[in-house]
Amino acid sequence: MKTLKNLLLFIMSMSLLIACSKTDSFPDNESPGKTLKKGHSGPVLVTLPFVMKGTGEYISALPDAECGYDPDSNPYMYRIIVDFTGTCTHLGKVTTTFSFCCNIITGDYGPCLVSLVAQNGDSLFITQKGRVMEGRLDDHPDYVTSYWRDPIKIVGGTGRFEGATGSGISDDYNSSLDAYSHHYWKGTITLVKGKR
Question: I need a surface site. Which of 63, 112, 142, 180 has the fewest CB within 10 A?
Fold first, then answer.
């Protein structure tokens, strides 16, 4: 019996020695705490619904050589500037200025790089390109005079929107009720989780 006790005591002692020895290995010689905090090998991405809506005030529509305007060969290329205010999921209240080239005969516009700026200063970058169509679609209110439903693409940002991607569609229009442009964008946004 004494031999069995001594054998069990020896096995327990050896087990404790083995368990307490420093044989753990961590990637890149990092400390255990740092490795545990990371919990993964790369950034975690999360895809969420994205909705933006608001109104724009037309500031100017003038011929612009940077847009390709030439009084003799191409007199229809204008730069349109619109000040925008609205709301956007993940940003709250936003402001921006749309500045884009537009052929005032065909309605073709863009590409337009939009920087939606939140109240905390973070920005979300979106590109849009398409065509303004005269009239309205059946699902538009009667007061719509022209519209554009075009793809949008999220191409990054600052702050918590750094590295953001995504896509969607615009449902924008001009109205006979007021002098503003009306904007509604819907899609998805992919963010890097943990960005502040």
Answer: 142
- Is there a contact between 119 and 98 (Cβ–Cβ < 8 Å)? no
Phi, psi of 6 (to 5 degrees): -65, -40
Residue closest to 117 by CA, chosen among 95, 132, 88, 84: 95
Q: In sequence order, what are the beta bridge partners of 48? A: 189
- The per-residue pLDDT for range 8-53, each reduced to its tens digit, is 455 555 554 455 544 444 445 555 545 445 555 667 889 999 999 9
Q: Is residue 55 within 8 Å of 179, Cβ to Cβ?
A: no
Domain 45-192 matching CATH 2.40.350: the answer reads yes
Q: For the CA atoms of the chain, what is the radius of gyration?
A: 29
The pTM (predicted TM-score) of the whole model is: 0.74
